[in-house]
Amino acid sequence: MTADSQKDLLLAGITILDGALAPQGFAFQFRGEGAGSGGPFAWGEFVRGDRRLELHYRNALGKVAYHVQDKSAPHESYMRQLGVWADCEYPGTSIGSLQGFRGLAHDLAYAKDFLDGDAKVLLLAAESEAAAAAVQRERLAASYAGDARCIEEMNSLFKAKRYADVVAAFDTLHSPHLLSEAQRRLVQLARNRASG
């Protein structure tokens, strides 16, 4: 597929969404097209004031994100925050090129908070997304700092019954608060056995 056909399909999908968004004062703005490692794509946004509904298309509707001012949340996070994710139709299981737009049009009926409300629920979803992204960045930084290797070493030391060494390795972790519950139990058990 060419970028042109991606743009054409995106614009065809926009006509499906227009019925839900135009009456609320949103207007579509095509933002661009190109080719990336995943192939050709096109994208644009429905915009009204400080609110934007961002849409990316690559063989099907892909990224859908809601923006208010400088805050944003992807479709799933917003719908989960609204408590309606189980009833949503986007992204769905259909691979039809325009089916994603039909599913999203259905789901927009739940987005009154974004469309004509105060967007408080969307802002909560954005806050949750930002917190999750921060944790993910911290985990990545911790793995770069050697925590992943250290945790593997702690497991090996525990199996070898070198409990004091497990505790010593734990004390060198960059982000010990990111350990799983099972890993924390292993460290506590090692502490108990090393001191007993």
Which structural category do the helix and sheet elements fall into? alpha+beta
Q: Rounded to an integer, what's the Rg over CA atoms?
A: 23 Å
Uncertain runs = none
What percent of residues are in strands? 15-25%
Secondary-structure element string: HEEEEEHHHHHHH
Spatially, the strands of the biggest sheet line up as 1-2-3-4-5
Q: Which of globular, elongated, flat, extended, rod-shaped describes the shape?
A: elongated
Q: Characterize the main sheet.
A: 5 strands, antiparallel
Count of alpha/pi helices: 8
| Annotation, overall tally of beta strands | 5
Number of separate structural domains: 2
Terminal CA distance reads 67 Å
Q: Percent helix among the residues?
A: 40-55%
Instruction: Give the rounded overall mean pLDDT.
Output: 91
Explain the overall architecture.
This protein is an alpha+beta fold. 52% of the residues lie in helices and 20% in strands. It contains eight helices and five strands. It has a five-stranded antiparallel beta sheet. Strand 1 and strand 2 form a beta hairpin. Helix 1 packs parallel to helix 3. The protein is elongated and about 70 Å long.
Q: What keyword list fits this structure?
A:
196 residues; alpha+beta; five-stranded antiparallel β-sheet; 8 helices; 52% helix
Task: Give a short synopsis of this structure.
By secondary structure, the chain is α+β, with helices and mostly antiparallel strands. The chain has helices at 3-21, 75-82, 99-107, 112-115, 120-144, 147-159, 163-170, 181-195, and strands at residues 27-36, 39-48, 51-57, 61-68, 71-74.
